[in-house]
Task: inverse folding
């Protein structure tokens, strides 16, 4: 690729506390909603008992091994690491009046290590977990009281880390509550649409309040949202499919519209009426929502199709979503369709819509990596996937899209959010642990480690033009 990415472009990877840290009750941490999902977001909820087992209790032990892992990220040339703070490490019950100092001190050590290696932290305040007590005692985000709990937490971490953390995100994939209400908002899975959308409203208000706190406490910081980029194409060019696609894309675009513009879009008036939903939106809520984000961040794994034809059933899995499969695309081992060009399309679409900087904070390929006889992992399939997606990011930048950076999911093998598997591997770094929790936890470099190192060093100049049949 003759084009080079801008010098300011941030290169790195993305991890989440509940999927890497382990140490699930260490140093005063409280239980989180993730801790009662031993089989991931798709699995059943359990009550924790003494001596029971959850693979995330240890995960990949990043809690203790972070110096080694961050050194490996630095060796690849990372200029950015997206990570999350575990809310229940800071406020174990969520409604505590005072923070847990041991939890705060842990992230001090993380940021010290990142600073030592000149890696910019991009910090998510809430990534698929909240203190379990808030879900049990308050019915999660269904309660307006949780707004105060979250803003207290946000204020605490902004004041503690604001001198060194200048890039923040509020909620990970905030639109996922539409599909996995417990994972997204601590709601019962059988909640009503009224409850679901009222909880989403409370979360959006809390996000806006956190944005204002960040702007007030850390004036030189930037804070963005994070949405699951679930772009749909019409299955055919029939006008009914076009309208159906418009309506379904608005389901996730609503979140970006509110967070970037500061008010509910007019198209939601009819949707709420058709669903029989009447939100309790106070004048104070409307004022709070006016504090808008500085940039748009999103995850991108695949696209899907939409159709008005009831005979066309959803038949493609997509990061907790269901979509109609695109007949022109291939799929991963987990059934996620692979569409690099869709990333260029999404970048252009979002930039046209919002005119705000964009940040790709998750993109990657989950696969069953198997060491060869020499113990090496030759993951050419991952290299192809990432090359083709990054090539399209370069195309979007040349289209005029302002892209802040790219953090692949996840740079080191970690526990899957949807299924709690370690065999679904994303990393450039292999972790010796299996789905049963067996293994030494030793780290080793995959072939993709050296490939990404070269891509970062060359600022994308060594990206290969994709095969025409693939992209």
Result:
């Amino acid at each position: 690729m003759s084009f080079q990415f801008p010098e300011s472009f941030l290169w790195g990877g993305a991890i989440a506390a509940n999927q890497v840290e382990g140490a699930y009750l260490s140093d005063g941490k409280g239980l989180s909603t993730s801790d009662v999902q031993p089989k991931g977001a798709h699995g059943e909820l359990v009550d924790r008992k003494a001596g029971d087992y959850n693979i995330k209790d240890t995960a990949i032990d990043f809690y203790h091994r972070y110096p080694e892992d961050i050194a490996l990220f630095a060796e690849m040339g990372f200029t950015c690491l997206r990570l999350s703070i575990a809310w229940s490490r800071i406020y174990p019950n969520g409604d505590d009046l005072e923070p847990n100092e041991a939890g705060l001190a842990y992230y001090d050590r993380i940021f010290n290590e990142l600073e030592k290696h000149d890696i910019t932290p991009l910090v998510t305040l809430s990534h698929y977990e909240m203190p379990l007590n808030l879900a049990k005692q308050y019915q999660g985000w269904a309660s307006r009281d949780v707004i105060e709990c979250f803003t207290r937490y946000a204020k605490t971490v902004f004041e503690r880390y604001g001198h060194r953390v200048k890039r923040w995100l509020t909620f990970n994939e905030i639109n996922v509550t539409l599909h996995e209400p417990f994972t997204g908002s601590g709601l019962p899975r059988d909640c009503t649409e009224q409850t679901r959308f009222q909880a989403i409203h409370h979360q959006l208000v809390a996000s806006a309040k956190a944005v204002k706190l960040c702007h007030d406490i850390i004036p030189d910081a930037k804070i963005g949202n994070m949405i699951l980029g679930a772009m749909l194409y019409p299955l055919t060019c029939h006008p009914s499919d076009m309208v159906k696609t418009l309506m379904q894309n608005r389901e996730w675009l609503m979140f970006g519209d509110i967070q970037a513009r500061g008010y509910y879009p007019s198209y939601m008036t009819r949707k709420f009426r058709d669903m029989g939903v009447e939100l309790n939106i106070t004048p104070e809520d409307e004022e709070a929502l006016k504090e808008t984000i500085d940039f748009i961040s999103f995850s991108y794994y695949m696209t899907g199709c939409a159709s008005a034809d009831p005979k066309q059933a959803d038949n493609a899995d997509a990061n907790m979503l269901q979509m109609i499969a695109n007949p022109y695309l291939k799929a991963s081992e987990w059934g996620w369709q692979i569409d690099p060009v869709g990333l260029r399309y999404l970048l252009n679409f979002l930039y046209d819509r919002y005119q705000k900087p964009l940040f790709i904070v998750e993109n990657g390929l989950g696969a069953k990596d198997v060491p060869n006889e020499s113990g090496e992992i030759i993951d050419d399939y991952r290299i192809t996937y990432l090359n083709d997606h990054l090539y399209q990011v370069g195309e979007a930048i040349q289209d005029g899209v302002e892209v802040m950076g790219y953090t692949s999911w996840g740079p080191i093998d970690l526990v899957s959010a949807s299924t709690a598997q370690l065999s679904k591997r994303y990393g450039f770094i292999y972790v010796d642990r299996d789905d049963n929790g067996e293994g030494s936890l030793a780290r080793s470099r995959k072939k993709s480690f050296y490939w990404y190192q070269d891509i970062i060093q060359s600022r994308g100049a060594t990206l290969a033009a994709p095969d025409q049949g693939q992209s």
Summary: The longest helix spans residues 193-217. The domain at 10-457 is CATH 3.20.20.80 (TIM Barrel). The mean pLDDT is 95. Residues 145 and 225 are 22 Å apart (CA to CA).
